[in-house]
Design brief:
Chain lengths: 334, 212
């Protein structure tokens, strides 16, 4: 008798959730009952018990296929696309992990303007098409470690931030790079309402030191899983800094400015004892409210997946980046 | 003849309903508490609960425990105001379900979040203030659940009520636990805090007496 054992990455057809069912799971939970189930408040602004009766059709954000140089095969198990695109911290579209998928479907990314300015000799602006045509696109499979102690493995498509900066010819005063997300309360409900946006001061801003920005690992991503970015993942262009906690990887960027002094960053501004400017992944330095020594890797497998793994210094990218911090006390500069 | 039978039927239906209203309420509470919990675990084991079923399970059971506790504490003021004494008989069941949800919350954290890394589990309870207060609240709920047995209640006499007054402390600890656990979105925990304070204010005479 032939006994076939399946590896856990070999999914069968029946394990694949139909997309419509997958997207309806919150609704299902909400309808289960109200005693234990429903919180006293509705979870998101748009949800109401009456939604059940309306036949509003979900608008699906359009994504295009990209041409790029594919990444070399990699032994890491990827996080399934459905999970990468439904578990997002993008407070501009709501603070629950599923809110961005729900609320960002009508987000307009074309036309778009990304300006590169500040301490540069040749400031310039990229339009929507330029984001995909100006630099050679390549695929990079990176681990993403969230400060909340979960992680994913994601095949991004993009180009090195260094390419974009070099084109602007930075001058000698360019010591830091400041990034800014789109500010458009009409499109981003979290910017309009404190309740939806979690009390964050908008627009979201982030920053890197110039050597971090020029590091070959630092990616400007315009796509994932071979297609342009979904809105909830930061379309049309976002930063990916794989050795830092996820909140450094700012989404839907409209401004990149080279500056002389360390720029303010959103989460640092909100709670500077919890989130530093550097935010390098570091198992030795705990978040004040939880341990950073290990993480849960989100792939497949439901509740019983044994997915808790040790967190690596610099998220496992120490060889490429540790040299930039060799004389720094990383407990102080967390 | 038919008319009179229907009147008889109506009356007897109402009488049956009134005679069994506590039972009916209890059945409703059982269904509305147990079914979501069962569905939650079935969906989560099958990876049908979003990208991170662990987080969903922990949030759902935590909020469920809090909601059930709030409802159980709402019963007394409502029963007093509308003179519906029979409602008081549902408090124990609601309290027990609140404890059940809270226990699922802790066990899911142990089994699925830290995945039986006992050292990490104990360190998190001791080192993280928001988990410490949550644990304290669970210990209170645990002692209330055990002593809800009728025989124990009789044996404990006056001490029973003294012990069960600790539920108000548990309520405040849970509200704090929720408030402390969020990253920045404090609106929802703030509203819960206000509801908790309103429920406590319904008992302000009782609470004042303790401090005299």
């Amino acid at each position: 008798m032939l006994i076939k054992t399946k590896k856990n990455y070999q999914l069968s057809e029946q394990q694949v959730t139909d997309e419509s069912v997958y997207h309806a799971r919150r609704k299902v939970l909400k309808q289960l009952g109200f005693l234990g189930a429903g919180s006293l408040l509705t979870q998101s602004a748009s949800a109401s018990p009456l939604d059940f009766f309306s036949s509003k059709k979900e608008v699906v954000f359009q994504r295009q296929a990209l041409s790029f140089q594919q990444a070399k095969p990699n032994s890491q198990i990827l996080t399934p696309e459905a999970k990468v695109t439904s578990h997002n911290n993008f407070y501009e579209f709501g603070t629950s992990k599923g809110d961005p998928l729900e609320n960002a479907q009508e987000f307009k990314v074309n036309p778009w303007q990304l300006s590169i300015s500040g301490e540069v000799d040749k400031p310039y602006t990229l339009g929507y098409d330029d984001l995909f045509n100006s630099f050679a696109l390549e695929e990079r499979i990176y681990r993403l470690r969230c400060v909340e102690a979960w992680s994913m493995v994601i095949p991004w498509v993009g180009f090195p931030l260094a390419d974009l900066i070099k084109k602007a010819a930075p001058n000698s005063r360019a010591k830091y790079v400041a990034f800014e997300t789109l500010y458009d309360p009409e499109q981003m409900p979290g910017q309009k309402s404190r309740r939806i946006g979690g009390g964050v001061q908008y627009p979201y801003v982030e920053g890197l030191r110039i050597d971090e920005a020029m590091n070959p690992l630092t990616l400007m991503s315009v796509g994932l899983y071979g297609k342009t970015l979904p809105a909830q993942n930061g379309a049309p262009i976002r930063l990916v800094v794989p050795w830092k906690y996820g909140f450094k990887s700012i989404k839907s960027i409209v401004g990149i400015k080279l500056v002389e002094h360390e720029p303010p960053t959103t989460w640092n501004r909100l709670a500077d004892n919890e989130y530093g400017f550097y935010a390098n992944v570091n198992p030795e330095v705990d978040h004040p409210r939880w341990s950073q020594a290990s993480e849960r890797r989100i792939t497949t497998g439901g509740l019983l997946a044994r997915n808790r793994i040790a967190t690596l210094p610099f998220n496992g990218y120490g060889e490429e980046v540790a040299h930039m911090y060799k004389n720094m006390d990383l407990r102080k500069y967390y | 003849m038919p008319a009179s039978t229907s009147v008889v039927n109506k009356v007897s239906f109402k009488a049956v309903f009134l005679a069994n209203r506590v039972l009916l309420l209890k059945i409703t509470i059982h269904l509305m508490s147990l079914l979501p919990l069962l569905a939650l675990y079935v969906l989560a084991f099958d990876d049908q609960l979003g990208a991170d079923p662990v987080k969903e399970v922990i949030h759902f059971t935590g909020m469920g425990a809090f909601n059930l506790l709030l409802i159980s504490l709402l019963i007394t003021p409502i029963a007093k105001k509308y003179r519906q004494g029979y409602l008081l008989q549902t408090r124990r069941l609601l309290g027990l379900y609140s404890f059940t949800y809270a226990l699922c919350h802790l066990l899911s954290f142990l089994a699925f979040e830290v995945q039986f890394d006992l050292e990490l589990f104990l360190n998190e309870i001791i080192d993280r203030p928001y988990i410490t207060v949550g644990m304290a609240a669970l210990i209170i709920l645990f002692s209330l659940a055990i002593t809800s047995l009728a025989s124990l209640k009789r044996k404990m006499g006056k001490n029973w009520q003294k012990l069960h007054n600790w539920v108000y402390l548990a309520l405040l600890l849970i509200a704090l636990h929720f408030f402390w656990s969020v990253k920045s979105d404090i609106v929802e925990p703030a509203i819960y805090f206000i509801i908790a304070i309103l429920l406590l204010s319904q008992r302000k005479d009782k609470i004042k007496r303790w401090f005299k």
